[in-house]
Design a protein that fits this description.
The protein is mainly β and 442 residues long. It folds into 2 domains: 214 residues, Porin; 198 residues, Porin. It is 10% helix and 62% strand. It contains 4 helices and 22 strands. A hairpin with a 7-residue loop joins strand 20 and strand 21. It starts with a helix and ends with a strand.
Amino acid sequence: MNHVMALLLGLALIIICTPARAQKTTQQDSPARKRRSSTVEVGAQFSSLTLTAPGVRREVGVGGRVTYNLTDNVAVEGEANYFPSGSTRGFDPGGSILQGQFGVKAGKRWEKFGLFAKARPGFVSFDGTFAPRISGTTTINGRQFPIYDVDRIVRATHFSMDLGGVVEVYPSRRVIVRFDAGDTMIRYGPHDVLDFSQTPEFFRAPSRTTHNFQLSSGVSIRLLAPKEEGDNNRRGSNQNQESMPRFEAGAHFTSLTFNPPRPLASDVVILDENRPLTESGVGGRFTFNLTKWIALESVLNYFPTADGVAAGASGRVLQGQFGVKAGARFQRFGIFAKVRPGFVSFNRSLKLVGTEPFSFGGFTFVRGIFEIGRRTFFANDIGGVLEFYPSRRWAVRFDAGDTIIHYGERSVATFFVNPAFVTAAPETRHNFQFSSGFSFRF
């Protein structure tokens, strides 16, 4: 990972130095190009942060960004993201997350898109971090033992460094579509830990640094966009509307926040509902435009790291949705609603395939025969779509909606009832899903 980041920074330096040789040509550019480097950009984004230690924890959130372009190639910017779920509490990390990064973006900008490297120091703050302390002592058999306050929860803020790359697409002179990917390195400082398996139980853990993949996508508005750029874009828009392409093929990144069904325990106790579980994946899409307003499309997504949503629904996830997209399409963007039935399939799920009798203590019982295999459940994707058209052949797309999964009956073995297994009734769960990507239109 460090080698990749070093390569990106080196590439940025090469790009920055390149315009110096072509300075004479740049000076002959239109006034619009000169003024573009002084514009201010304000944007909003969706972000996915994968925390790698302890364990693997994926969080999804929203954020905002302000960018000031010093030149066409160099900009300073500040960004803040909030991850509200707070799916776990712990010594490090724990609770919901507030992130701030402030630094430099450098690269190359063309007419329709830009490529940049970024280096942005900042902080990541967790509001649900355990901070145990000794609150007193007690005497047992003549010996004194400490009493620990384990319910004390505080906010813990750690230094972070965001290194990565940026892809920008310019569908018009005022709108920027942006994708960020990189390594958010978090430096956890020394902290107190309570572990009853060690002696002493209360000790000071050393500092450590973790590498965490982060992907963001969003839209920005140029507050000081030059008028001259609009003339070029208006000329291009006529070409964009000459004839609408009938077919679109695209790829995207997607995150699905599972709202799991109720867990089943082997002692026949139905536990409280699980906390949401976010998984990240990749996918492809094919669209057939019937008219300017209505299209048929199919989507296939793969989530390679899903460990388990619940008993009977675990393993890596394959998702397929097939349906209709309908809405309004304008020169540079389109807004649509979508309804797409389909399926969500888990490749390593526990499933009941039969029963058999067995004897114990002179009594006859019935037990379940279980196998580990693929289980597929009906799913319906309902939501909205926002598209941008930087050219006639290319589209940038954002999807957000509710993926409704209907889980069928799920069973686990038990030793306390006859038959010796317990089965949960079918359940329907609503799950937020967000996708962003590109499409080629032909």
